[in-house]
């Protein structure tokens, strides 16, 4: 091989290793779905509760600005990697605005904050908590669903796609302006 080609191969390998180290968290499929001993109970590092049971702030990666759809759009959310079936928890008090199936997000849930100014979007869910319905009040930490890979998510990488939108008065559930949830979940 020519030296220039070796340099390109080495650079590509280095980028892959860096991506895996900083952006990918591999969780075994047979990992327990309950809280781990070091993280018993919900994680509360930031103003919002980390919405996946047993996931510490140190396991979060800021993927908000990463490109999606071959660079056609920004992610505008973070992905919280976890074993399929792990409990998804309400990040804050509020109510269920919309329970919806979408081609991209799969099984989704939209939660309006108690003051109505924020919308929390939970996507790629495997299942909803029994009896869940639109209009239902939610308490921070309440189990609302389980982690999955529905919609356009990779079936081999179950995760929660979690987004936060700032809402204007009267704005519908599909509106708002995306803000980065990472600093709201994990103090920098």
TrEMBL record:
Keywords: Hydrolase, Metal-binding, Metalloprotease, Protease, Signal, Zinc. It comes from the Bacteria. Its cofactor is Zn(2+). Pfam families: Peptidase_M23. Residues 74-169 form the M23ase beta-sheet core domain. The keyword Ribosomal protein does not apply. The keyword Zinc applies. Residues 1-22 form the signal peptide. One of its GO terms (biological process) is proteolysis. InterPro entries: Cell_wall_metabolism_enzyme (IPR050570), Dup_hybrid_motif (IPR011055), M23ase_b-sheet_dom (IPR016047). Transmembrane segments: none annotated. One of its GO terms (molecular function) is metal ion binding. This is M23 family metallopeptidase.
């Amino acid at each position: 091989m020519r030296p220039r080609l070796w340099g390109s191969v080495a650079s590509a390998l280095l980028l892959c290793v860096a991506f895996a180290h900083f952006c990918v968290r591999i969780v075994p499929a047979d990992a327990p779905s309950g809280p781990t001993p070091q993280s018993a109970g919900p994680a509360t590092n930031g103003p919002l509760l980390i919405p996946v049971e047993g996931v510490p702030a140190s396991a979060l990666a800021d993927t908000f600005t990463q490109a999606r759809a071959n660079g056609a759009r920004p992610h505008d959310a973070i992905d919280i990697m976890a074993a399929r079936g792990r409990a998804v928890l309400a990040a804050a008090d509020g109510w269920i605005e919309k329970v919806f199936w979408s081609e991209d997000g799969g099984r989704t849930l939209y939660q309006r904050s108690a003051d109505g100014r924020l919308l929390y979007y939970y996507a790629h869910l495997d299942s909803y908590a029994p009896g869940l319905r639109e209009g239902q009040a939610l308490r921070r930490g309440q189990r609302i669903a389980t982690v999955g890979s529905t919609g356009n998510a990779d079936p081999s990488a179950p995760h929660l796609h979690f987004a936060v939108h700032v809402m204007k008065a009267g704005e519908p559930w599909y509106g708002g302006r995306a803000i980065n949830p990472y600093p709201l979940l994990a103090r920098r």
